[in-house]
């Protein structure tokens, strides 16, 4: 999958700050819906396989009088779903359509001429083949708690052709009520199929939405809130989901979280998948990780790659400190460094990358042969970095 990360500077976007604006937005284009096609094929095949067509009874006029017939135990033996067309419908949802559904069914039949003077009855089995045009439209909205919903908004199941072959008995009599059977099967399937498909997709789709963990536990009391701030948007070329994107520490949200309204280009749809990240989300994470004490690292000698010109010891470090007595006071002794961010880093998102400032203290310790540590100096520093996106 081709993934391109788009970030936009909030300082150049006109909009009013609001906690209801998304800190994180995902856009999935039509090219990125391939996985939906495979899932839809599987679900539709299973649902069609379990279509329930009720028994049918009726009568037909013949040269021997009225014939009463019953078709029972109607069951789907196989169902094949050909290529699916998965498309986005602007303002409506996601549509899955196909004109290549083939269904094979079997059933039992029997007939008799009631109380006629000459009693005639027979029974046998039948095979039935049909082709179907199918179209299902689904959508997603937002619950008050920010959880997404999934539901079927429309279903069309049009039986195009029914072909019945009877087995056993007198073939000349089958044709007298075969048309009745075909019409009944067609009407029953069109009624039952959409009801079953709608119920199944609503149930499975909503279960999948309910199972989504939109507040992720990252560890050490840090969580990331991905709940929706508005219902998903369906356009003709993409589906867009706007999420909160706020970090919390011990279930307390960061105070520095005021994302501005994003003004995203509507023609950004050439890739399969896009993410739009605001600096509000990055600064929220920065603040929370600083509160959690996670922005600290210990560097020991065994973490430094072997290098003939540098070791993490008093000889090497003392050489970088003019006038220092470190080398003479603690000759040839290993050291360790503690790098601690002293304030939550601030991120500035611009049109071509991310810039940030990290204020930090570097505290150096001498490691004695006994394992004891001696604090020898602390350096205050400000680290500026930039990540440019191409």
**What share of the residues lie within helices?**
10-25%
* Distance between the first and last residues' Cα: 17 Å
Mean pLDDT: 83
Strand percentage lies at 35-45%
Instruction: Using the CA coordinates, give the radius of gyration.
Output: 35 Å
Counting H and I runs of at least 4 residues, what is the number of helices? 5
Give the structural class.
alpha+beta
Number-wise, the strands total 20
- Main sheet? 6 strands, antiparallel
Overall 3D geometry? elongated
Which parts are unreliable, with pLDDT below 50 for 5 consecutive residues or more? 1-18
H/E topology pattern: EEHEEEEEEHEEEEEEEHEHHEEEE
Commentary on this structure:
- The structure is a single chain.
- This protein is an alpha+beta fold and 390 residues long.
- 21% of the residues lie in helices and 44% in strands.
- The strands form four sheets. Strands 3, 4, 5, 6, 7 and 8 form a six-stranded antiparallel sheet that branches. Strands 1-15-2-12-11 form a five-stranded mixed sheet. Strands 16, 17, 18, 19 and 20 form a five-stranded antiparallel sheet that branches.
- Helix 1 (34-49) packs across helix 2.
- It is elongated.
- Residues 1-18 have low confidence and may be disordered.
